[in-house]
Fold Regucalcin.
Amino acid sequence: MLGEGPFWDDQRQRLLWVDIIAGDVHEWYPADNRHTVTHFPLQLGAVIPDDQGLFIAASDRGIVRINPATKEITVLTDPEAHLPNNRFNDGKCDPLGRFWAGTMDAVTQQPASGSLYMLDNAGQLSTKIRDVTCSNGMAWSADQQTFYYIDSPTRQVHAFDFEKYSGSISNRRVVIEIPASEGLPDGMTIDRAGMLWVALWGGWKVACWDPHSGNKLDEIPLPVSQVTSCAFGGTDLSDLYVTSARTGLGEQEQLQQPLAGSLFVVKKVTPGGTASQRIYI
């Protein structure tokens, strides 16, 4: 189990997340504690619903559209088909519903072999950042003027000036430095106060950082080491959902971490967040 990509669907009051390696899309409806799993013959880094009941997914076959009812898969774009070791990893939508997703070498972890892309509302793809090693967490500020991004091996959170209508990013700078002792930064989300909650692979926790000062403000310890991503959800968007992984753990580590790969929910995290942005393509 390599859990990733938690997405709170505010319209249907459900949480979506994926098991990357298995190709499973998980749906959980907290109102009645209903959990469904749908398998697809893909490696899935993230899935986001559109208004037609379909999913747009970042996968090992590029960015694809999935019909969850028929399981039909349509490739929208595959910019790295010439790089067989590469697959898409994390993906999110910006404030206008454009899909941002980045790649990585999932076989040899070749440095600087990936990129971050944006699929716009007309279905046109553009490259936003090149020479990425392991594309991961993304977030946008509430005023829609700043884009935050994680390339995991840098152990940094980078900020960019963001132009909402064109989707252009500029003025790259480091706003958070994460010590090796904290773990490797993976997925992230942003709360209503503009603070960043970062999942820490190998760090046994999710931690909150202030991107203005670079200081760590809080942390939530978890009973698993490989913490992968997080998203706010629930009826008032104050519950923090956290995904984790079992992949990569040795036999003894799996015995010590029986909950590895589970989805966790931390209730009433102040000040809460905002609903995940749906896709409009």
About this structure: The chain has one helix and 23 strands. The first strand starts at residue 3 and ends at 9.
